[in-house]
């Protein structure tokens, strides 16, 4: 409940900019439960302290988003040596270390013409980090409505934009090799739980892949995502074993999780 209250506090602070922002990462996964195609689950969603807020480099972000966050009680935490620096917009530790960060699309090799790194950008007073494959999360995005009725204590109901589940899964597959083992395990659980949450709508997810995503991404990228999925979940691995140990309110068996993920990926993505 504390997480949802903090999330509502963030949403109210950035409400005027929500039309241009896509909620990605773990909080997108939590918001999936509010979508009409989602099935009811008895277990709790995977908890995360940070809210990832993505936008396109071409989005017309105007006004002072930074000041709106500060007015709502968020403080800036500067990280790294980039110019401008990576920034987390954080509530105090009394709020569980809850924070938000902004993300946008990384193009090319992440270098400016002068050879310096080009991994962050400033818009509307805030700083966003540029990440690879983020553009996938902006394609064919979904709307979900949150309100006090579904335990998000916003002042009034609001439509949030989240990646469609196929984009969410594809991006997780494409970034696996860049992640450490702990993050790989977490992403594996996210993939498993997303496929389970929409298990009754896999045909709808396949249509999203075939009609909205695959035609818009490079063929090599699409093939790499499919091949990666098949390779990662062909056999039980230590990453899968780590993933099934994460939940505290349910018991997952490595082989069952592996088989469920592979089945879901085959139904949604087909073959190469």
Describe this structure in words.
With 272 residues, the chain is of the alpha+beta class. Helix content is 38%, strand content 17%. It has nine helices and nine strands. It has helices spanning 2-14, 25-31, 65-71, 165-175, 181-197, 202-213, 219-232, 238-244, 254-269; strands at residues 22-24, 50-54, 75-79, 86-90, 99-105, 120-123, 126-131, 142-146, 158-162. Strands 1, 2, 3, 4, 5, 6 and 7 form a seven-stranded mixed β-sheet that branches. Strands 8-9 form a two-stranded antiparallel sheet. β3 (75-79) and β4 (86-90) form a beta hairpin. α4 (165-175) runs antiparallel to α5 (181-197), α4 (165-175) crosses α7 and α5 packs across α8. The N and C termini lie far apart (43 Å).
Our estimate of the beta-strand percent is 15-25%
SS summary, helix count? 9
Shape: globular
| End-to-end C-alpha gap | 43 Å
Structural class: alpha+beta
Largest sheet: 7 strands, mixed
Helix and strand element order: HEHEHEEEEEEEHHHHHH
- CA radius of gyration: 18 Å
Helix fraction?
25-40%
Low-confidence stretches: none
Name the average pLDDT.
92
Could you tell me the number of beta strands?
9
Which short descriptors sum up this protein?
alpha+beta; 9 helices; two-stranded antiparallel sheet; 17% strand; seven-stranded mixed beta sheet; single chain
Secondary-structure map:
Blueprint: H1 2-14, E1 22-24, H2 25-31, E2 50-54, H3 65-71, E3 75-79, E4 86-90, E5 99-105, E6 120-123, E7 126-131, E8 142-146, E9 158-162, H4 165-175, H5 181-197, H6 202-213, H7 219-232, H8 238-244, H9 254-269
Parallel strand pairs: 2-5, 5-7
Antiparallel strand pairs: 1-2, 3-4, 4-5, 6-7, 8-9
């Amino acid at each position: 409940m504390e997480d949802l209250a903090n999330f509502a506090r963030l949403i109210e602070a950035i409400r005027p900019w929500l039309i241009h922002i896509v909620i990605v990462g773990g909080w997108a996964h939590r918001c999936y439960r509010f979508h009409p195609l989602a099935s009811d689950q008895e277990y709790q969603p995977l908890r995360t302290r940070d809210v990832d807020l993505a936008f396109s480099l071409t989005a017309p972000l105007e006004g002072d988003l930074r000041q709106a966050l500060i007015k709502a009680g968020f403080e800036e935490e500067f990280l790294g040596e980039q110019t401008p620096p990576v920034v987390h917009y954080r509530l105090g530790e009394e709020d569980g270390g809850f924070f938000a960060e902004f993300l946008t699309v990384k193009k090319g090799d992440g270098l400016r013409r002068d050879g310096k790194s080009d991994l962050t950008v400033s818009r509307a007073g805030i700083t966003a980090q540029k990440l690879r494959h983020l553009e996938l999360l902006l394609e064919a995005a979904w709307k979900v409505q949150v309100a006090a009725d579904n335990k998000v204590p916003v002042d009034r109901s609001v439509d949030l934009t989240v990646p469609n589940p196929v984009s969410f899964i594809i991006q997780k597959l494409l970034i696996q090799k860049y992640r450490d083992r702990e993050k790989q395990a977490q992403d594996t659980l996210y993939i498993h739980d997303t496929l389970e949450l929409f298990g009754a709508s896999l045909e709808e997810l396949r249509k999203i892949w075939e009609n909205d995503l695959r035609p818009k991404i490079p063929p090599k990228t699409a093939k790499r995502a499919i091949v990666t999925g098949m390779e990662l979940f062909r056999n039980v691995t230590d990453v899968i074993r780590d993933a099934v140990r994460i939940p505290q309110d349910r018991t997952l068996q490595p082989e069952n999780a592996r088989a469920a993920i592979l089945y879901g990926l085959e139904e949604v993505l087909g073959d190469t």
